Amino acid sequence: MKQFIRTLALFVTCIAFAQQKDYYVKNGAAIEGYDVVSYFNHKPTQGKKEFTTQYNGVQFRFANAKNLAKFKANPTNYLPQYGGWCAYALGKNNKKYSINPETYQIKNKKLYLFYNSWGTNTLHKWKEENPEELRKQADKNWASYQNKK
User: Is residue 6 part of a domain?
Assistant: First the structure.
């Protein structure tokens, strides 16, 4: 019985880790604890620990109870594309890069996040270098990450 419980615990841990690695997590939460619903109001806001939920093994934080309820009602409407990793880097170089949670774009009701630091704003590059082609390539690259699981 003890062996079964250990095996089950290991299995659950592996699943949680496998799911979590698909998200950009920093400070213990997806996209550095920013409220994913707030982007769709065009006001990226840091979430609060008292408004937290788990989804796919990852902690998501929200600025208020209303946004938490919206997310819980339909999380896939609010999830960032590519797990919150930099959309440009995934499309251009097939690499997972961190993001600046305040550098984003909403396109076709989808949230895209971008790296923006040290004089490099990949949202500008994304817009300048054919965003549709970069998005298609990022979609393809992201699918290859998902298939490696």
Answer: no
- The last residue of one of the domains, among 33, 55, 78, is 78
Which pTM value belongs to this model?
0.84
What the block records as the tokens of 29 is: 């939460």
Domain co-membership, 33 together with 91: no
The whole-angstrom separation of Cα 24 and Cα 83 is 6
What average pLDDT does this structure show over 30-35?
Answer: 97
Segment 107-116, tens digit of pLDDT: 999 999 999 9
